[in-house]
Design brief:
The chain is of the alpha/beta class. The structure holds flavin-adenine dinucleotide.
């Protein structure tokens, strides 16, 4: 049996930052990072616009308290304010720390780190590396893994969390190359498995964002928090859905409807294009529904609006947002220097996730903790984003809470013994599961079921929701889950059988989708990204609380948990 003091699943920003912290704190510990991709191909590498921190390089009036307030207001008051305080107070320090590791941020003429405007932030505080920030940070962190001797298992797929008697003891994984199954035991297990964008048919996320960590946690009987809050990013490139970064609006781009109006004046007059994402996404959908969307031939009534950067001029476009220009050019043939970019909302981020306390330890209930189990990054819900995340706060969360969780784990494993794990039992069960998938005589291909599922989630649990719509969605989902029992794999081999991972990922997606729908159905109010047409107002007396959803094959049970308030009283949210 493989054993490490600490195993971290996920090679994105959260997992790698935690691993570096543990190895730096106590070089004697054996630390491993497991990823189903190569770590450098984690979705973090695609992050574009930047990372917020009150360095005050551009705006001296900025303070961490202002950052905290913007974050809490942006969250529609659902964020836990103790967690937000940590996030925003530690932000400048983690940026400097990354710089010392070698991250090349963009600069001001005097050599200090440059900062730009971002949606929902009241000051210019987003640090960036052009529009390739995730790339710059992740490459340095992965280099540092090697420097500190962290063992990397790349292209291993983790299929099960071993949780016994309220303690995480290890996991079961297989090597994608040859389906070799291994059990790993550890004194601490950390999940940093990223988001679930692939639950929907249009997303900015990579193909690996299938919510596996969430599904494994829920399947082990642990709750998932606030899963109804799915972030739609306003500017997905039409029709492909890939991201056109908020940095584009941070640099001054306009959103225009078919009448050539900057319609954000109607929805958020003081912030215009830099309103938070939930508000901007709803505005775009409303414009499209009202017939003021645009068709590819330029006529009214189509399915997208325009994002216009022409007034910025070629030099600013090419120096500040070159990657966005390239995406539009490469994917839909638009030269943004001379033409507006077609955009519409695309699924982008998961506000909810595995519930943790402020040290990254996973919760089993509102006041219980799981021994030996930690989580950070997009898969976790600590909760700093509440009902709606502000742009450039996620990379920050990964680094602040990755570092913090790493520090906690380095202490936690001291003087602890390896747990007992019944290796043969777990190997046999995993082998049977894999064999059963390979042998399936079913009638549906994986992508048929996946597409039907993604269409179902998009139609019945999208930007706007209602009781009847979501009830119908749950019924449809039940039928799809039944059909998913009868999938078949074309490839019956074990060498590089990517269909096998897709079949397992499909199981993750289906479970996560059901939890999202059930959580959304139970929240009878509109808050942040969760917008109900039958309950249009926020309802603090009844719903200023976190959802905890417990999955079982029989259904999803919903409980609630209080929100931590420290300094900001809920107010009406206006921009
Ligand atoms: C296009 C795009 C642009 C963005 N831009 C910004 C931005 O400018 N600023 C900002 O703050 N945020 C941005 N975000 C959000 C931010 O990038 C992510 O929330 C963050 O990077 C997530 O990091 P992570 O470490 O939690 O997970 P990820 O980087 O998603 O990594 C997940 C890891 O888990 C591994 N994994 C998952 N399941 C398994 C399994 N079953 N077995 C083994 N390994 C597994 C994967 O291989 C991967 O290594 C952006 C997101 C997208 C999609």
């Amino acid at each position: 049996m493989i054993e490490h003091d600490v195993i971290i699943v996920g090679g994105g920003l959260a997992g790698t930052r935690a691993a570096v912290e543990i190895a730096k704190t106590d070089p004697r510990l054996s630390v491993a990072v497991i990823a189903k991709t190569h770590p450098i191909r984690s979705h973090s590498v695609a992050a574009q616009g930047g990372m917020a921190a009150t360095l005050k390089n551009v705006d001296e009036a900025d303070t961490w308290e202002a950052h905290a307030f913007d974050t809490v207001k942006g969250s529609d008051y659902l964020a836990d304010q103790d967690a937000v305080e940590i996030l925003t107070r530690e932000a400048p320090d983690v940026v400097i720390d990354l710089e010392h590791m070698g991250v090349l941020f963009s600069r001001l003429p005097d050599g200090r780190i440059a900062q730009r405007a971002f949606g929902g932030h009241s000051h210019k505080r987003t640090c960036y590396a052009a529009d390739k920030t995730g790339h710059a940070i992740l490459h340095e962190l992965v280099s540092n893994l090697r420097r500190y001797g962290v063992q990397i298992y790349d292209e291993w797929y983790v299929m099960r969390l071993i949780l016994e008697e309220g303690q995480a003891k290890g996991l079961v994984m297989f090597r994608i190359r040859d389906a070799q199954i291994e059990v790993v035991r550890a004194k601490a297990v950390m999940f940093a498995t990223g988001g679930y964008g692939r639950v929907y048919n249009t997303t900015s996320n990579d193909y690996a964002s299938t919510g596996d960590g969430l599904a494994m946690t829920a399947a082990a009987g642990l709750p998932l928090e606030d899963m109804e809050f799915v972030q739609f990013h306003p500017t997905g490139l039409y029709p492909v859905g890939v991201l056109i970064s908020e940095a584009v609006r941070g640099e001054g781009a306009y959103l225009m409807n078919s009448e050539g109006d900057r319609f954000m004046a109607t929805y958020a007059p003081s912030r215009m294009e830099l309103a938070p994402r939930d508000i901007t996404s709803r505005a775009i959908v409303k414009e499209i529904r009202a017939g003021r969307g645009i068709h590819p031939d330029g006529s009214a009534g189509g399915a997208f609006v325009h994002l216009d950067v022409r007034h910025l001029g070629q030099e600013q476009i090419m120096s500040r947002i070159p990657f966005c220009w390239e995406e539009a050019h490469r994917l839909v043939g638009i030269d943004a220097v001379h033409q507006p970019i077609p955009v519409r909302p695309t699924v982008h981020y998961s506000m909810g996730g595995i519930p943790t306390n402020i040290n990254g330890q996973v919760r089993s209930s509102p006041d219980g903790l799981v021994e030996g189990f930690f989580a950070a990054g997009e898969t976790a819900c600590v909760s700093v984003h509440g009902a709606n995340r502000l742009g450039s706060n996620s990379l920050l969360e990964c680094v602040v809470y990755g570092r913090r969780t790493g520090a906690t784990i380095a202490q936690y494993v001291q003087d602890r013994k390896f747990p007992h794990v019944d290796e043969p039992r777990y190997i046999t069960e995993a082998q049977q599961k894999v064999q059963a998938l390979l042998d399936k005589p079913g009638q549906y291909r994986i992508d048929q079921i996946r597409q039907a599922f993604q269409d179902c989630m998009t139609e019945y649990c999208g930007v706007f929701r209602s009781e009847s719509l979501m009830q119908e969605g749950l019924e449809k989902l039940k039928a799809i889950r039944q059909q998913a029992e009868s999938i078949y794999l074309d490839d019956k081999g074990i060498l590089w059988n990517t269909e096998l991972t897709e079949a397992l990922e499909l199981q993750s997606l289906l479970l996560v989708g059901e939890v999202i729908l059930a959580s959304a159905l139970n929240r009878r109010e509109s808050r942040g990204a969760h917008s109900r047409e039958d309950y249009v107002d926020r309802d603090d007396p009844n719903f200023l609380k976190h959802t905890l959803a417990y999955y079982s094959p029989a259904g999803v049970e919903i409980r609630y948990m209080p929100v931590t308030m420290t300094r900001f009283e809920p107010q009406e949210r206006k921009y």
